[in-house]
Amino acid sequence: MSTVATEAELTAERRSPAPRLPAPRKRPRQRNWLTIWALMLPAIIALIALIAVPVYKMVVLSFEKPNIFTHKYKNVGWANYKSVLGDHEFWTVVFKSVIFDVAAAAATVICGVAVATAMMHMNKALKLAVSTGLLLVWATPQFIGATVWQWFFDTEFGVANWLALHLGFTKEFQHSWYTSQWTAFFVVFLVVVWQSVPFVALAIYGALLTVPEELNEAAEMDGAGPVTLFRRVTLPLIVPVLIISTLLSVIWDFRVLTQIAFTTQGAPYGQTNLLGPYIYQKAISSGAYGVASAIGVVVTVMLMGLSYFYVKIMRREDQ
User: Fold this and answer.
1) How many structural domains is the chain composed of?
2) Is the CB of residue 310 less than 8 Å from the CB of residue 251?
3) Nearest to residue 306, comparing CAs of 245, 239, 250?
């Protein structure tokens, strides 16, 4: 009987459910949201102070005609916008800005891809030197870089004139690069591309590092040359980074101001003024703050349209 009882007790113990551990306490979602907003608050305050408030002031001022002497503001409705959109000079500047922007962005991306591809075939020492040089150029303030280029193309002491003379491109020693619209734009073009290439080159280089080496080796075994290898294998894999870099270059180059202010200063006769210097000239030189604000609103809407495509591509990449 005792043996049967013992076996029955063991069977009952085996069938009895195991003791349950206490469930972990869930943190209330409200506390998580408070933490998230507390971490985001400094950035939100900075954005409101540095972007939202100036944009709001610009929009309000675009509907007014201020008097800088009496500090009075007269509401003129849509008159500033009608004046801007009906001004032939404004559309000429917009056309120049778009052409310059497209050309500068295209040259920036092409040079960036070339530099990044060349870095893939460099040894460690040379790659480190090139990367350091790119970072130094990218970190250089715009006005310092523009001043260096202004000295480079100086009429009397510029290195560009010295090189052109000794290489036989010209017999004129003191050639002025700022008396012609095309050569003046060429100087600004070089400054903008020189300052924009480092970011694109490093971004593309990072994308090239993610391309699997096995794909390149398989393509080479199939007889693909360097051009075919880049076009068929490498390029499709770096297209997302390439598109993002191009859009950012277009947005940044659309706001060119410092480079023109420290090189051509709009010469000759304001023909190298793009939208940035044009707005500055309307506000500071002409005192038409309302018209300048209206132009700023129009440019902001254009940039928001470009930014929409950038955000859309970024969201697609995240998904």
Assistant:
1) 1
2) yes
3) 250
CA distance 164 to 15: 97
Is residue 54 situated within a structural domain? no
- Confidence at residue 37, expressed as pLDDT on a 0 to 100 scale: 86
125-173 confidence digits (pLDDT tens):
999 999 999 999 999 999 999 999 999 998 888 888 888 888 877 777 7
Instruction: Output the domain CATH number for residue 253.
Output: 1.10.3720.10
What is the C-alpha separation between 82 and 79, in angstroms, rounded? 5
Contact criterion met (CB below 8 Å) for 214 and 165: no
Rounded Cα distance between 253 and 97, Å, is 9
State the pLDDT confidence band at 19, using cuts at 50, 70 and 90: low
Per-residue CA distances from 95 to 87, 214, 272, 279 (Å):
13, 46, 12, 15
| Prior bond of 19 cis (ω within 30°) | no
Instruction: Identify the three-state secondary structure at position 74.
Output: strand
Confidence of residue 1 (pLDDT cuts 50, 70, 90): very low
Is residue 44 domain-resident? no
- Asked if 167 and 201 count as a contact pair (C-beta separation under 8 A), the reply is no
Distant-in-sequence, close-in-space partners of 108: CB < 8 Å, separation ≥ 6? 192, 193, 196, 197, 200, 249, 253
Contact 145, 195 (CB under 8 A): yes
- On the question of pLDDT at 39 being above 80, the answer is yes
- Euclidean distance between CA atoms 133 and 151, whole angstroms: 20
Distant-in-sequence, close-in-space partners of 151: CB < 8 Å, separation ≥ 6: 157, 158, 159
Prediction pTM value? 0.80
Question: DSSP string spanning 183-218?
Answer: HHHHHHHHHHHHHHHHHHHHHHHHHHHTS-HHHHHH
* Closest to 94 in 3D by CA, of 305, 318, 302: 302
Q: What domain range is 302 assigned to?
A: 96-318
**Does the residue 225 lie in any domain?**
yes
Instruction: Copy the structure tokens of residue 159.
Output: 């290195």
Residues for the chain: how many in total?
319
Q: How far is CA 228 from the centre of its chain?
A: 30
